[in-house]
Specification:
Number of helices: 34
Strand content: 15-25%
Helix content: 40-55%
Number of strands: 23
Largest sheet: 5 strands, parallel
Structural class: alpha/beta
Distance between the termini: 113 Å
Length: about 1000
C-alpha cells in the first residue's frame, strides 16, 4: 500500500535523496519534537561515513527549517540510520548536532581516511555535548539539552530569557522561559520532575527560577504552567545549615573536605555539635587518619560563616571508621555562644510565631529526603498570617498529595501552639498554578463567626498566599490585596444602591394604587377631590369583602352547629380516656387516619417509625402502647390562659398535667421528671402495673419529662410553675450527669427565662398575697381600671364594636371558628406526618418525640440501637467534643438549683428520688466515664440529706443495645425494664393508698 507524504516531508525526502544519491524510495523520515530521524536503506546497507559525508556537506549549505512548515519547531539534531531492505533493525546510527556541523565534518573526514573495518572509534574533532554548552546559560543550548529527553515524547522545546521585576524589589532579574509544544496535551506530572531534575542538574547561575509552558499546537492559551526553583544546591544546603540542620551541615563539610578525601558525620547533643572526620574511602582499613590541622583550617571558617541557629559550640573528632576512640579532639565556640540572636533554636522561635523558622521546620518536615530536594527543588512552603488564621501553601513540581501533607502540617502547627492562631488552612498546588488543587482546614480553638465562613477562603488563595507566575503577556501585573476601607466602601455603595432601588419600587407601587401622590404634584389636579373618590371606591370594596367573609363564616358555623354536641362528647371522651389504647372515641388524634385491623400488616409501628430489623419487638417485653395525646396537648396548650414558656414540650406537658388534675381532682401519686432520658426512660403504665404486684395497687403515675431539661428547669417547674397542692408525695427525678453540668450553656432554661410565662411566674412568686386573692376577680378589676382611663374616642370605638357585633353572623361564635381553624391545621399536619414515612425514619429523634407522647406524658420508642446502622447516619462524638460535657463542673448554677429543690421538697415533706439512668458502653468512653464518676461521688455525698434517695442504674445494661434507642436514651423495652426494677427497689418509699 502506497503512503502519500505531506508536502513538507516530500520536500525533505527529495532534498535528502539528492544529497545522498539514494533513491527516494529508500529514504524515510520522521519528525519528533526537535529531532529529525532519517532512515536510509537499499539492497545493500548504505556506507555509513560516505552517506554522512554527503549529508553533512548538504547540511552546511541548507537550513533545514526552511524545508519545513512554519508550525514545525526548529530542528536541533538529526539521527541518521542505515540498514538493508527487509531487515528489522538498522545496522548503524549516528547523531548529528546541527550547532556543531563543522566538527562532525572533521570527524567524518578522519574516518574516511582510516580503515573503516579496523577503526571502530575513529579519531577526529571532539564533539561537545549539549549539556556542557547548556551549563554556560545559553538558551539555545538549554533547549537542545532538554530536547534530548523530550523529543522522544513528541515534545519540541524552545527557550527564551526575559527580564522581570520581582515583588517588593526594584532590581530586574532574568527569568528562563521554556516553551514545550506538542500535538497532544502531555500530563504535567509526567514532565514536571524530569524537566526540574535536568534544569537543576545544570546548576545555572543568574536564573532564580524557570517557567515551563506547555502548549498544544493550534491552541492560543497555554495548557499548563510549571515553575522550577533553580536555586543552586549549595545555596539550599547553606540555608538549611544556617537553621542548624545536621544533615545539611554534614553534607556541606563533606563537600569542602572532599579534596582531603575526608567524610563527615554530625550529631547534636543539647546545644553542642559533634563532628566526626573519617577517611572518605577506606575499604582495607589502611587509609591514614585525617590530619587535624588541615581539617580544622577548613571546618572552622565554614562553621563561623554558617553560624547555625541554636548551636553554641562544636566538638570535632578525627578517627578511622569503626574506631571506638578518636585519634584527636578539638572544641570550638560558635557565634551563637556570643550573640543571643543566634542562641534560640528554630523550634523555640517557631513557638513564638517566627515565620521564617516555621517555614524551615515545615519544609524540613515535608522534605525528609535531602537528595530528592536538591535534585528537584522539593516541596516549597509559603506562609501567610491573616487574622487568627495561618494560611500555608505547599507547592512542588508535582502537586503534593493531600494525605502526604495536610495531616503532618496541621499536627505540627497544633504542637507549636502559636499565640493568636486559632485555625490552620493548608493548600496544595503544582508550582506555577494560581489556584490550589486541594485544601484542608482545621480550627485549633472555637472561633466566633458573624457570618458563615468558607472552608477554606478560596478568594484569599491566589492573592495572599503565593508569588504567582503570570502569563507571558501580563507578567509584571499582580493584583494587590484589598484594604478594609475599600471593602467597606464597596459594601456601602451596594447597600445604598439596593435601598434606592427598593424605595423606587415601593414608591411606584403606592402611586399605582392611587391612594398616594407625589408631594410636588401640581395643585391644579385637585388632589382632594380625586382622593375622596378613590377613598370611597376602596372603602366600599373593603366593606363588601368584610360583609361577605362574615356571611360565609356564619354559614359554616351554622352548618356545623347541629353536630357540635356530639363533637364535644367525643372530645371529652378522648380527653378523659387514655386508659384503653383500643378506644376509637377520639376527635383530634383519629381525624384523617384509618386504623388497620389487628391482623393487617402495616409499615408503621406504634411510635410512627417504619418497621425494620431494629424495630421488631420479638422476645422483648414492654407495656402495651397507649393512645397518643399530642393532638390533645397542642389544643389544650393553645386554649390555656397561661402564657407560653417558649418551650413547646413544656407547654404541652403542662397542659396534659393540668387536664389530669382537672379530671382526677388530685395530683398523681408519683411524678416522673427530668430530661428526654426521663421522658423515654420510665414508663408510667409499666411502673403502676409493677407496683400493683408489689402490694401498691392503683398508683397513679405521670411522666413530666422535657427534652433538654436541666436542674434549673426542674427547679423552676417544681417550685414556680406547679402549685404545692399540685405536687405528689413522691418525685422520681430520672436523668444523669450532663443535666448537672454548670459549665455548659443551658439553652432550654435560657429560652424559658426569656418567655412571658417565666416573668408571670416570678411576679406571682414575689407577691405577698395568696394566689387565690390575686385571681379572685381579675376581670372586674381590669374593667374598672379601663373605665377610669377611657376617653371619648375609646367610648366611640367601643360603641362601634358593639354595634357591629350585634349584626355580625360570626362574631358570637368566634371561639368555635378559632377551634375549627386549629382543628383543620392540626389535621393537615397529621396527614403530612402519616404520608412522609421516610421523613420520620431519617429525621431527628427529638423532633419525632414531640409528636408521640401518650396521656401519661411518656414517649414510647420502639426503635433499637444498632451501632452499625446508627453511626452511618450520625457522627460518633467522643466525650471531649460533647457540648453536654463541655467545661464539666458539678458546682455552680445547676448545683444551686438542685439545693433549692432539696430544701423545697423537705419543707413540703415530698420524697425525692434521683435515678441515674442507664447508658450504653459505646457512650461511656473514658472522658464521659470520668465525669460520671465525679457526678456520682457528688450525689452520694448529697444522699445523706433527709427525704433524698440516690439510685444508680447508669451501668445496668451497658451491652444490651436492644434496650436503647440511641447511645444514651432508652426505648420502650428499656423503659419497661427500668420501671420493673424501680418497683422492686426496697429503698424507694412508695406511697400506699
Amino acid at each position: 500500500m502506497k503512503t502519500v507524504l505531506p508536502d513538507r516531508q516530500q520536500s525533505l525526502v527529495q532534498w535528502i535523496s539528492q544529497a545522498t544519491g539514494i533513491n527516494t524510495f529508500g529514504v524515510k523520515i520522521r519528525l519528533r519534537g526537535n529531532d529529525l530521524h532519517i532512515l536510509c536503506e537499499g539492497t545493500e546497507c548504505p556506507q555509513r561515513w560516505r552517506t554522512l559525508s554527503d549529508l553533512l556537506q548538504a547540511l552546511q549549505q541548507t537550513d533545514l527549517d526552511s524545508l519545513t512548515s512554519n508550525e514545525q519547531p526548529s530542528i536541533y539534531q538529526v539521527f541518521v540510520y542505515g540498514r538493508r531492505k527487509g531487515e528489522p533493525r538498522p545496522k548503524w546510527c549516528h547523531r548529528v548536532y546541527l550547532n556543531q556541523i563543522q566538527k562532525h565534518v572533521e570527524q567524518v573526514q578522519q574516518a574516511l581516511l582510516a580503515d573503516s573495518e579496523t577503526s571502530k572509534q575513529p579519531a577526529g574533532a571532539l564533539i561537545v555535548s549539549n549539556e556542557s554548552l547548556a551549563r554556560q546559560g545559553n538558551p539555545d543550548a538549554i533547549a537542545r539539552y532538554l530536547s534530548e529527553t523530550l523529543s522522544t515524547l513528541g515534545v519540541s522545546v524552545q527557550a527564551k530569557i526575559k527580564l522581570y521585576k520581582p515583588k517588593n524589589s526594584q532590581v530586574e532579574e532574568n527569568r528562563l522561559w521554556i516553551f514545550c509544544h506538542s500535538s497532544y496535551s502531555p500530563d504535567a506530572s509526567l514532565l514536571a520532575e524530569p524537566i526540574a531534575q535536568k534544569l537543576r542538574y545544570l546548576r545555572l547561575s543568574g536564573y532564580p527560577d524557570a517557567v515551563i509552558v506547555s502548549q498544544v499546537s493550534g491552541e492560543t492559551a497555554p495548557d499548563w504552567l510549571l515553575r522550577v526553583d533553580l536555586t543552586p544546591p549549595e545555596v539550599m544546603l547553606k540555608e538549611w545549615a544556617r537553621w542548624g540542620d545536621l544533615q545539611a551541615i554534614a553534607r556541606l563539610l563533606t563537600e569542602v573536605l572532599s579534596g582531603l578525601k575526608v567524610a563527615v558525620q554530625a550529631s547534636l547533643k543539647e546545644s553542642t555539635l559533634h563532628i566526626f572526620c573519617t577517611p572518605a574511602y577506606d575499604p582495607l582499613g589502611t587509609a591514614p587518619i585525617p590530619d587535624k590541622t588541615a581539617c580544622l583550617e577548613v571546618i572552622v571558617p565554614q562553621l563561623e560563616a554558617i553560624a547555625p541557629q541554636g548551636i553554641l559550640g562544636a566538638t570535632i573528632y578525627g578517627q578511622k571508621a569503626g574506631d571506638k576512640q578518636p585519634a584527636w579532639i578539638d572544641w570550638l565556640a560558635l557565634p551563637a555562644a556570643e550573640h543571643s540572636v543566634f542562641a534560640t533554636s528554630a523550634l523555640d522561635l517557631a513557638n513564638t510565631g517566627d515565620e521564617p523558622a516555621i517555614v524551615f521546620l515545615l519544609e524540613r518536615l515535608l522534605n525528609p529526603d535531602l537528595d530528592w530536594r536538591l535534585l528537584t527543588g522539593g516541596i516549597r512552603v509559603l506562609l501567610l498570617n491573616k487574622g487568627d488564621l495561618l494560611h500555608i501553601m505547599c507547592d512542588a513540581p508535582v502537586c503534593p498529595g493531600r494525605t502526604q501533607v495536610a495531616n503532618k502540617v496541621t499536627q505540627f502547627i497544633r504542637q507549636l501552639k502559636i499565640p493568636g492562631i486559632k485555625g490552620v488552612r493548608v493548600y496544595g498546588r503544582r508550582a506555577g498554578n494560581k489556584e490550589p488543587f486541594w485544601h484542608h482546614g482545621i480550627d485549633l480553638e472555637h472561633r466566633q463567626r458573624l457570618v458563615p465562613e468558607a472552608t477554606p477562603e478560596f478568594a484569599a488563595t491566589s492573592q495572599y498566599v503565593n508569588d504567582l507566575v503570570t502569563a507571558e503577556t501580563s507578567e509584571p501585573i499582580l493584583r494587590p490585596d484589598l484594604t478594609t476601607e475599600e471593602v467597606q466602601s464597596f459594601v456601602t455603595e451596594v447597600a445604598l444602591d439596593w435601598l434606592a432601588t427598593a424605595n423606587a419600587a415601593v414608591k411606584k407601587f403606592l402611586l399605582v394604587t392611587q391612594l398616594f401622590t407625589e408631594s410636588h404634584q401640581s395643585a391644579e389636579l385637585n388632589p382632594d377631590a380625586q382622593g375622596v373618590k378613590i377613598a370611597l371606591v376602596w372603602g366600599t370594596l373593603g366593606l363588601l369583602l368584610t360583609l361577605q367573609s362574615d356571611w360565609v363564616l356564619g354559614q359554616i358555623i351554622t352548618r356545623t352547629t347541629p353536630s357540635s354536641p356530639t363533637v364535644i362528647s367525643e372530645q371529652k371522651a378522648s380527653l378523659t380516656s387514655g386508659k384503653n389504647p383500643n378506644e376509637k372515641k377520639t376527635f383530634f388524634a383519629s381525624t384523617g387516619k384509618t386504623k388497620s385491623s389487628p391482623n393487617q400488616s402495616t409499615v408503621f409501628n406504634a411510635s410512627q417509625f417504619t418497621q425494620g430489623d431494629d424495630t421488631q419487638s420479638g422476645n422483648l417485653a414492654a407495656a402495651p402502647l397507649k393512645e397518643k395525646a399530642t393532638a390533645t396537648a397542642i389544643l389544650l396548650a393553645a386554649r390555656s390562659q397561661m402564657p407560653s414558656f417558649n418551650v413547646r414540650q413544656l407547654d404541652e406537658q403542662l397542659a396534659l398535667y393540668k387536664q389530669r388534675l382537672a379530671r382526677t381532682g388530685s395530683p398523681p401519686d408519683i411524678l416522673i421528671i427530668g430530661s428526654s432520658r426521663a421522658l423515654r426512660g420510665v414508663d408510667p403504665a409499666a411502673l403502676s402495673k409493677a407496683l400493683a404486684t408489689q402490694g401498691y395497687p392503683n398508683i397513679d403515675v405521670f411522666n413530666f419529662g422535657i427534652n433538654g431539661a436541666t436542674a434549673q428547669v426542674v427547679n423552676f417547674v417544681i417550685r414556680q410553675v406547679l402549685e404545692p397542692s399540685e405536687l405528689p408525695k413522691l418525685i422520681l427525678w430520672a436523668d444523669g450527669a450532663r443535666a448537672f453540668n454548670s459549665g455548659r450553656e443551658d439553652i432550654t432554661f435560657k429560652s424559658i427565662a426569656a418567655s412571658t410565662g417565666y416573668k408571670q411566674a416570678l411576679q406571682k412568686a414575689s407577691t405577698t398575697g395568696t394566689s387565690s386573692d390575686l385571681s379572685e376577680n381579675p376581670k372586674q378589676e381590669k374593667t374598672k381600671e379601663e373605665k377610669q382611663e377611657t376617653n371619648s374616642y375609646q367610648a366611640v370605638n367601643d360603641w362601634l364594636n358593639h354595634a357591629l357585633a350585634s349584626v355580625s353572623g360570626s362574631y358570637q361564635n368566634r371561639e368555635q371558628i378559632k377551634s375549627l381553624v386549629q382543628k383543620q391545621l392540626l389535621q393537615f399536619g397529621q396527614n403530612q406526618t402519616v404520608t412522609s414515612p421516610k421523613q420520620l425514619t431519617d429525621g431527628n429523634l427529638e423532633d419525632t418525640s414531640q409528636q408521640a407522647v401518650d396521656f401519661d406524658g411518656f414517649l414510647p420508642l420502639s426503635i433499637r440501637f444498632n451501632p452499625a446502622r446508627y453511626y452511618q447516619k450520625h457522627s460518633r462524638v467522643p466525650g471531649n467534643y460533647d457540648n453536654d460535657y463541655k467545661s464539666f463542673q458539678v458546682g455552680g448554677e445547676q448545683d444551686n438549683a438542685f439545693q433549692e429543690v432539696l430544701q423545697f421538697t423537705q419543707s413540703q415533706k415530698i420524697s425525692l428520688v434521683f435515678i441515674n439512668m442507664p447508658l450504653t458502653a459505646d457512650y461511656l468512653d473514658p472522658v464521659r466515664k470520668k465525669y460520671e464518676q465525679e457526678f456520682q461521688q457528688n450525689m452520694l455525698r448529697l444522699a445523706t440529706n433527709p427525704n433524698f434517695i440516690y439510685r444508680d442504674l447508669s451501668q445496668q445494661w451497658l451491652k444490651v443495645n436492644d434496650y436503647f434507642s440511641d447511645p444514651s436514651h432508652l426505648n420502650r423495652f428499656g423503659a419497661y425494664e427500668v420501671s420493673k426494677k424501680l418497683a422492686t427497689d426496697p429503698m424507694i418509699p412508695w406511697p400506699a393508698k
